[in-house]
Amino acid sequence: TGQTVGIADLRKGCSTFLRDNGKLYDLAECLTNGSGWANLQAADINNQGRIIGYGELNGVQQAFVAVPVTQP
């Protein structure tokens, strides 16, 4: 689908990103404020745009599946 995930060394430090049609999105900035997630590491993305990986949720390492949501 033209999307990839990985780690990018951005000006503010390393960050997990989604690359969609040539544009980089910081996954941490795409989460709902106050979600509790930190230190995200994306591992893969499927054809439906679902991202799997791991990170820390309230200080405990957890796996995640991020499901894309269309903005109104």
The N- to C-terminal Cα distance equals 22 Å
Structure classification: mainly beta
Per DSSP E runs of 2 or more residues, the count of β-strands stands at 6
Spans of at least 5 consecutive residues whose pLDDT stays below 50 are none
Indicate the proportion of strand residues. over 45%
In quaternary terms, these chains amount to: single chain
Number of helices: 1
Structure description:
- The protein has one helix at residues 27-30, and strands at residues 3-10, 13-20, 23-26, 37-45, 51-57, 60-66.
- By secondary structure, the chain is mainly β.
- The radius of gyration is 12 Å and the shape is globular.
Can you tag this structure with a few keywords?
72 residues; mainly beta; three-stranded antiparallel beta sheet; globular
Structure, briefly:
With 72 residues, the protein is mostly beta strands. The chain has one helix at residues 27-30, and strands at residues 3-10, 13-20, 23-26, 37-45, 51-57, 60-66.
Secondary structure topology:
Layout: E1 3-10, E2 13-20, E3 23-26, H1 27-30, E4 37-45, E5 51-57, E6 60-66
Antiparallel strand pairs: 1-2, 2-3, 4-5, 5-6
